[in-house]
Amino acid sequence: MSNNFELSDYQKCFATNKTWPNLGDKLTAAFSLLTVTIIASGLNIVLIATILKYFHELTEKVRINILLMNLCFSHCLYLSGTFLVQSPAAFSSVPIYYSNNLMISLTAISSIGFYAIVFFEFSVAIDRFIVFYSEKKLSRNAYFGFILILWFLSISAVCLQVWHGCPKRYNQWTLSYSFECNFGCTGNIFGFLPISILLNLGTYFTYAVFGLYVLVFLKIIHLKSLHQTKFKAQKKELLVLMQFFAIFLCTWLSTTSMFVFPTWFGRSMFTNICPMILIALNALLNAALLITFNDTIRTKVIQFLHFKSIYRPKKITVSPHTLSAHQSFTSRNNNPNYIGIL
């Protein structure tokens, strides 16, 4: 790398005791991340467009689809960082984004997406919990109000980060997002909450999601036992469990790897780019599972893409409001309280 230019202060800090990555590392990081990001973004954009096109039909009774659409948008917002920051930096032979304010502004977009992902995944888990443990059903207006609150919290979390001198930046020497070189990152939020709580918020909410889904799964087992349902019970339970485990594992890894992997495996290109790839995989997995397990969404996606449907969805599922001594299972298409982890 040529040294015939002046680095900004934050870039000088990032460059301390580090070497400029070689072309092979930069291309490996760029193409691996771009590949996953393009696929994940494409799937989520298709889902958003599908739900918007058939909005009334898909949200009139199954209101969780409103949350899922916002979750898809959150993933797209986070993945925009690949196109705005990571790819241009990876393909550049010299450091770019000299302006600290520009770097903070660009990475703030993906940070808002990250917090929104955390909050909306938690809200989906709460929705599934309410379906199985309560007879109450929220109105669409309540969902819209809840969604506005979650977006407000996501934006506020990033603003608080920056306000307390802890913005996220992209380190072009390590090819990763970093909270390093934040010399003013001190103090407490509102005077009593340590700033570390905000930076680790994703991890805390992931464990909360895990707890909620465990309770949901136990409720499914209880309902099946109570009504002595036997028809394909083991297969259905296994599918739900596998779906839940896949989402939790990918979400947990994506929210903790940024802090945990360097401690476990040391600093390397792998540990630097792995968190970003895992979050992109999480976006891809959520979209793929939604299309795979939700028959109604899958049918609408096929219609939206103008593919001829050659099948009739026949999947069955369990729901607390449809279980009875005479009818323990119900069609997912006809039941607004169908259960899928998504």
UniProtKB/TrEMBL annotation:
<protein>
    <submittedName>
        <fullName>G-protein coupled receptors family 1 profile domain-containing protein</fullName>
    </submittedName>
</protein>
<dbReference type="GO" id="GO:0016020">
    <property type="term" value="C:membrane"/>
</dbReference>
<keyword id="KW-0472">Membrane</keyword>
<feature type="transmembrane region" description="Helical">
    <location>
        <begin position="197"/>
        <end position="218"/>
    </location>
</feature>
<feature type="transmembrane region" description="Helical">
    <location>
        <begin position="270"/>
        <end position="293"/>
    </location>
</feature>
<keyword id="KW-0812">Transmembrane</keyword>
<keyword id="KW-1133">Transmembrane helix</keyword>
<feature type="transmembrane region" description="Helical">
    <location>
        <begin position="104"/>
        <end position="130"/>
    </location>
</feature>
<feature type="transmembrane region" description="Helical">
    <location>
        <begin position="142"/>
        <end position="163"/>
    </location>
</feature>
<dbReference type="InterPro" id="IPR017452">
    <property type="entry name" value="GPCR_Rhodpsn_7TM"/>
</dbReference>
<feature type="transmembrane region" description="Helical">
    <location>
        <begin position="238"/>
        <end position="264"/>
    </location>
</feature>
<feature type="domain" description="G-protein coupled receptors family 1 profile">
    <location>
        <begin position="43"/>
        <end position="290"/>
    </location>
</feature>
<feature type="transmembrane region" description="Helical">
    <location>
        <begin position="29"/>
        <end position="52"/>
    </location>
</feature>
<feature type="transmembrane region" description="Helical">
    <location>
        <begin position="64"/>
        <end position="84"/>
    </location>
</feature>
